[in-house]
Structure to design on (685 residues):
């Protein structure tokens, strides 16, 4: 049994846990108690390094245990690298890692391995799909705690993390704040950064300056929309700023269609980005009679002959 | 020639790597003789593809002499839904010592360094057979698709080899496409027949800001003038046209320079193409050229998967260029590179309808120019 006062809560040299919820472990301890004892070792200074079971120890501390049953590793042949790998494999078979943890592990492995070794031997174990992703995860430690907490707990794509890292340090938390506030999905996150990067270079504008523009402020202050609608509107505003000509044409097209007062079962569609010169007329009907009625009605729509490419309107 | 040292003096070629089976070719021996002080090594474990993500410098200071195993003559692949000119690409090497921010080659090849296909001369015979076995066809062949045709000419001697080869072919023309003024090799050649020397043109703003290592537009046109005076037919390619705030003024100035230096009656063709790129090129451009503004325009994902300017922007630019080039001279062989029938009609007022139509149009230009 080890007295809890001897067990440091700060992440030691083998720790690979970041931002976890102890609730499930506490429930488990309350139901069946501690099943697997943590592994520890005494380091050169006589204090204790937690090798495995960092989460278990923190959860037991939260339960106010005064002492914790641990297994002390005394084999002098076990190197720090061996102990790191021991903890890695102990974790691998019980859970998956979040991206911050993967970054922690890679950084720890880098003490003992070359990057080439890591690419060839550890990417598969850590479910890292490319060298580029591995390089990126290593850089997560550059981020502040707020950003790391979000990366560890929210569904952010690797591409989003890359975009966050590419931002100036002062803009990172702002970007994450908006992603959280609007609950942007992976696709929207990608569009957000894509549009922002282009606008920022074109207009020489930082993220703070951009997001303090009136339309974004209005979006946050208005009450009429729910979060998914706000997220959609957010991306639309960015798109309008990035692609003003296209947006104008889309609006002009929609206005033309609206003013035609087409029958409800008729739609006119344009090709993606108006790249194809043809438009598509779509009529939905159940019987020939309805089709004929619709065609007759279309024949009577005066504005139809004046329909033109929206940029010519 | 003044600009040549800037991007391709001996200082720039820091290393030569001889690929497997490449050493015994005459071109290899010539190159080694011309660059005796450059560090030399043999490629040991075959060709190594590289991690583009990490090797953003593209290793442009290394010259690799390669015995190329692929096809030397291939048709331009074109793109579905867009009209292609039916050009034949003569693959003499890959990559380029210049470093244009918009260059597609940054994303196109997964192998670094400047690569010279030293077995070209040996392969010319079989290329000749292809040309000879289709006497009814006109082969419009170019070497400037995967590299600059003349940037390495003082090292490779392509301008010595290829015109001599073409001289025997009645149904083919060869286009050297360049952004340099490295024309001494060509001018010293005794051959002129069916050789087209063409220059990529842009506005001087884009040339100065984005075409790193290339000579100025003025120098290109002075070189073109010299070629015309020496009996060569010339061509020009406004590709890529870039949409930026002062684009109209910028391109007009280049047309004015054309007027100053070039005899339009000895121009075989002038092509135009707005900037388009594969989506994977964008992050590479952003990394390699962080201060570039060439991606500022309104790009949309076109039906061929490439990013292109929103159509009305392209229409405006092509119409402007067509109008102003026609003011200069009414018979320049203007054509659009990889555009749709609709864009042709809307900006030029006529269309070749399809790739066959454009091929016929350009073949007629060849017949007309070389008959005169």
């Amino acid at each position: 049994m080890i007295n809890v006062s001897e067990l440091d809560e700060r992440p030691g040299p083998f720790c690979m846990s970041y931002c976890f919820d102890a609730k499930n472990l506490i429930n488990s301890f309350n139901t069946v108690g501690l099943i697997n004892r943590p592994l520890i070792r005494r380091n050169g200074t006589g204090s204790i390094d937690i090798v495995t079971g960092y989460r278990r120890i923190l959860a037991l501390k939260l339960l106010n245990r005064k002492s914790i049953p641990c297994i002390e590793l005394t084999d002098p042949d076990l190197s720090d690298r061996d102990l790191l790998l021991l903890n890695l494999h102990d974790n691998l078979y019980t859970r998956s890692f979040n991206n911050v943890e993967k970054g922690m592990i890679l950084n720890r492995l880098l003490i003992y391995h070359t990057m080439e070794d890591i690419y060839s031997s550890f990417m598969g174990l850590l479910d890292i799909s490319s060298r580029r992703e591995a390089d990126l995860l290593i850089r997560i430690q550059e981020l502040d705690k707020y950003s790391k907490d979000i990366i560890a707990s929210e569904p952010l794509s690797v591409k989003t993390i890359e975009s966050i890292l590419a931002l100036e340090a002062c803009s990172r938390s702002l970007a994450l704040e908006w992603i959280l506030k609007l609950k942007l999905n992976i696709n929207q996150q990608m569009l957000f950064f894509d549009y922002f990067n282009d606008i920022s270079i074109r207009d020489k504008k930082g993220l703070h300056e951009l997001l303090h523009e009136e339309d974004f402020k209005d979006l946050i202050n208005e009450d009429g929309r729910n979060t998914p609608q706000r997220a959609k509107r957010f991306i639309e505003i960015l798109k309008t700023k990035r692609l003003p000509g296209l947006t104008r044409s889309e609006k002009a097209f929609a206005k033309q269609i609206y003013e035609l007062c087409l029958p409800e079962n008729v739609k006119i569609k344009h090709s993606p980005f108006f790249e194809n010169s043809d438009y598509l007329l779509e009529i939905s009907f159940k019987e020939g009679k309805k089709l004929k009625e619709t065609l007759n009605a279309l024949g009577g729509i005066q504005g139809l002959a004046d329909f033109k490419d929206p940029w010519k309107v | 020639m003044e600009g040549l040292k800037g991007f391709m003096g001996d200082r720039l070629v820091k290393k030569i790597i001889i690929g497997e089976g490449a050493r015994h070719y005459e071109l290899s021996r010539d190159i080694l003789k011309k660059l005796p002080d450059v560090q030399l090594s043999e490629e040991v474990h075959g060709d190594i593809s590289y991690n583009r993500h990490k090797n953003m410098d593209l290793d442009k200071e290394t010259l690799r002499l390669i015995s190329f195993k692929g096809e030397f003559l291939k048709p331009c692949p074109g793109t579905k839904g867009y009209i292609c000119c039916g050009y034949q690409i003569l693959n003499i090497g890959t990559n380029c010592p210049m470093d244009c921010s918009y260059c597609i080659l940054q994303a196109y090849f997964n192998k670094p360094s400047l690569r010279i296909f030293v077995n070209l001369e040996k392969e010319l015979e079989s290329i000749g057979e292809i040309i000879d076995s289709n006497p009814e066809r006109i082969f419009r062949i170019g070497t400037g698709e995967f590299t600059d045709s003349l940037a390495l000419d003082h090292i490779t001697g392509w301008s010595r080899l290829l015109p001599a080869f073409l001289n025997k072919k009645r149904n083919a023309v060869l286009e050297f496409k360049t952004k340099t003024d490295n024309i001494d090799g060509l001018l010293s050649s005794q051959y002129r027949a069916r050789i087209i020397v063409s220059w990529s043109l842009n506005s001087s703003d884009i040339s100065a800001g984005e075409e790193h290592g290339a000579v100025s537009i003025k120098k290109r046109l002075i070189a073109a003038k010299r070629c015309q005076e020496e009996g060569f037919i010339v061509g020009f390619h406004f590709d890529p046209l870039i949409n930026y705030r002062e684009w109209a003024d910028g391109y007009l100035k280049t047309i004015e320079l054309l007027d100053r230096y070039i005899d339009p009656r000895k121009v075989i063709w002038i092509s135009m193409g707005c900037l388009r790129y594969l989506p994977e090129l964008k992050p590479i451009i952003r990394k390699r050229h962080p201060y570039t503004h060439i991606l500022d325009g309104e790009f949309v994902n076109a039906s061929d998967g490439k990013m292109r300017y929103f159509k009305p922007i392209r229409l405006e630019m092509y119409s402007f260029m067509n109008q102003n080039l026609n003011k200069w001279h009414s018979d320049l062989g203007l054509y659009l590179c990889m555009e749709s029938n609709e864009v042709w009609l809307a900006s030029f007022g006529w269309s070749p309808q399809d790739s066959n139509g454009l091929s016929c149009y350009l073949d007629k230009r060849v017949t007309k120019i070389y008959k005169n």
About this structure: The interface with chain B takes residues 131-132, 135, 197-198, 201-202, 242-246, 249, 271-277, 309, 311 of chain A (CB under 8 Å). Residues 41 and 73 of chain A are 5 Å apart (CA to CA). Strands of chain A lie at 2-3, 39-42, 48-52, 67-68, 71-72, 266-270, 279-283.
